[in-house]
Amino acid sequence: MAKLLTSLNIAAPDEFYERLIRAHEGLSEEESASFNARLILILANHVGDAEVLAEALQTARKPAP
Amino acid sequence: MLQDRYSLAFRLYPYQRAADQDAPAPVRHQVVVGGAGPIGLAMALDLGRQGIPVLVLDDHEGIGQGSRAICFSKRSLEIADRYGCGDAMLEKGVIWNVGKVFHDDRQVFEFNLLPEEGHKYPAFINLQQPYFERFLYEQIEAERARGAPIEIRGRNRIDAVEDRGDHVELSVMTSDGPYALEAQWLIACDGANSPIRGMLGLDFEGRVFQDSFLIADIRMTSASFPTERWFWFEPWFKSGASTLLHKQPDDIWRVDFQIGWDVDRKEEMKPENIRRRLDAMLGADVEYDIVWSSIYTFQCRRMRKFHHGRVVFAGDSAHQVSPFGARGANSGMQDVDNLGWKLGLVIRGEAPETLIDSYNEERIHGADENILNSTRATDFITPKSKISHIFRNAVLDLAETLPFARSLVNSGRLSVPCTYDGLCLNGPDELPGGPARTRTGSACPDVPLEDGFLLNRLGTGFMILTIDADAPDSIEEDGITALRLPLALKDDPTGALTDRYLGSSRSAVYLIRPDQHVAARWQRYDEGALRKALRTACGKD
To answer: How far off is chain A from B380, nearest CA to CA, in Å?
Structure first.
């Protein structure tokens, strides 16, 4: 673990979290799953760095204690 | 006793009783090739053109019916060109560059292969497999007329194989009964279900894909489509979970429907049921004839080793992939290209038998790359879980508007030759500023010269390609001769030579193998280094 930022990098965390949840409003479970998939792909492309993405996948699978 | 397993497109080598069948003791042959499919025929051509006696045994009397493999890659055409039959294939084949990808009723995007200029052959041609095989066969006939020692025996079925260490014993069945043969080398080109592999009890492991595909080759009589590759994910016409439409010569179209795993084959193959799928796709007013149809399933798997004593496996007998990406017959052609010169050197006593181990190493490297790519394409086309399906469709949704997502759409990554990076036969890669695409281990890319193409001047033996560099006209090292091909920047009418072989270097010396792969490269000629690399490339270190 070296390149993935795990300290806070979002200026207004509460605001982002609210937006994320609100973005799912009115979506069925299936629509939400599709939304999430699209969001992950868009963000992953923005990140680009293979090492960061690999670390992110690993971290998401098993959050650090 | 000898039952035909399929009907023939071309009957070419009817059974004839051979003198071997009346010999008092089994006759020993230099090389026996098991199977006269595209890979077996190419193998016979490669060896026969080197003057090595080769006997091909096939349990049928000609080329089987059905278009089967229809996409032949630039590299396969270049190999066929080396054998003398590339032009005939190109002339008959359909060249295509545009592909369209659809999801449901929407076009997701369109791509153009944008072929790079300055190659004798296009990235791909579409050509029915029987034609590909017939051009190889016709070249064999032409070579035989010039004295090449190639023999093909039809309706000769290999029933038993025994490895005797320094040779192989074969029992061959004919309509006149069985006879015995011996072979110094047996090359098994007998397909994915390889009976020879079975007779030797060898492994063939990998992943089964639980899906079936229905192929219908149709001749349009009332309408036509452009010469493009169309691929539908979850098409609106519901004829399959995915559908491919692709043009072949003779105004025939390949339609390939993904129809699921639990299907009643007999029911699905009924003409009225095939027509139901086609009509839904094409519209009821389009008229067509069904030329050929078939249902196939596939696996991605390979043998652990392609070389077992004096038995060597090539093509589908050694490795099998999904059809997405055209990596089946095309990778088999590269097997032949790789094995031919090595077997030639070993048989002529010019290289140690262990050179054949490098065939195993290099072509397993190729097979693994093909299996990886075709498995990825298959997982994209036929998602195996709900979440995989959600991501696949998310990619398709985004691809309509966002360029990055188009690169994730995978309906088959089209076959390109693999680079033998870091493998045993490689010499140094010491050309500062040299292009990555011609690094040691690469298949040489073509280049237009003042008079013809570069690849036509490579491939008969080892070559020393010099660009604005000195070197002797030939070098002989332990019985192996490498001839110089001197080029200069003034011979580079299009700049492709600089672009593909020099990069930012001002001179280059390449040692190129008989299969047109780069064995080593330097900035300047160094006799000691070249001799060493030549030994390494022949497995003498």
So the answer is: 14
What strands lie across the sheet with B474-477, from one edge to the other? Answer: B429-430, B518-522, B508-512, B462-467, B480-487, B474-477
Distance CA B68, CA B66 (A): 6
Residue of B nearest to A46 (CA): B404
Residue A1 in this model has a pLDDT that exceeds 60: no
How many other β-carbons are positioned within 10 Å of the β-carbon of residue B193? 11
Q: Do A37 and B408 touch (CB under 8 A)?
A: no
Q: How confident is the model at residue A63 (pLDDT cuts 50, 70, 90)?
A: low
CATH T-level fold of B429-537: Glutaredoxin (3.40.30)
Burial of B275 (0-12, 13-18, 19+ CB in 10 A): middle
Count of residues making up chain B: 541
Give the pLDDT of residue B412. 87
Put residue B177 in one of left, alpha, beta given phi > 0 → left and psi -120 to 50 → alpha: left
- The CA-CA-CA angle for residues B253, B255, B259, to 5°, reads 170
Looking at beta carbons, which residues of chain B come within 8 Å of A45? Answer: 404-405
Q: Which CATH architecture does the domain made up of B8-16+25-93+123-205+301-369 adopt?
A: 3-Layer(bba) Sandwich (3.50)
Domains in chain B: boundaries: 8-16+25-93+123-205+301-369, 429-537
| Å between B383 CA and nearest CA of chain A | 14
B interface with A, Cβ–Cβ < 8 A, is 387, 390-391, 393-395, 397-398, 402, 404-405, 408
The residues in A 15-54 lying below 8 A from B, measured between CB atoms, are 30, 33-34, 37-38, 40-42, 45
Q: Do B405 and A37 touch (CB under 8 A)?
A: no
Average pLDDT over all residues of chain A = 93
Which residue is listed with tokens 């290289």? B351
Which pLDDT score is estimated for B324?
86
ipTM summary value: 0.95
Of B387, B398, B404, Cβ closest to residue A38: B398
Q: How many residues comprise chain A? A: 65
pLDDT at B376: 93
Chain B residues whose CB is inside 8 A of the A42 CB are 398, 402
User: Which residues of chain B fall below pLDDT 50?
Assistant: none
Chain A residues near residue B408 by CB distance under 8 angstroms? 41
pLDDT beyond 90 at A65:
no
Question: In this complex, do B394 and A45 lie within 8 Å of one another by their Cβ atoms?
Answer: no
pLDDT (0 to 100) of residue B221: 85
Residue B509: the pLDDT is 98
Dihedral over alpha carbons A42, A43, A48, A49 (to 10 degrees):
-160
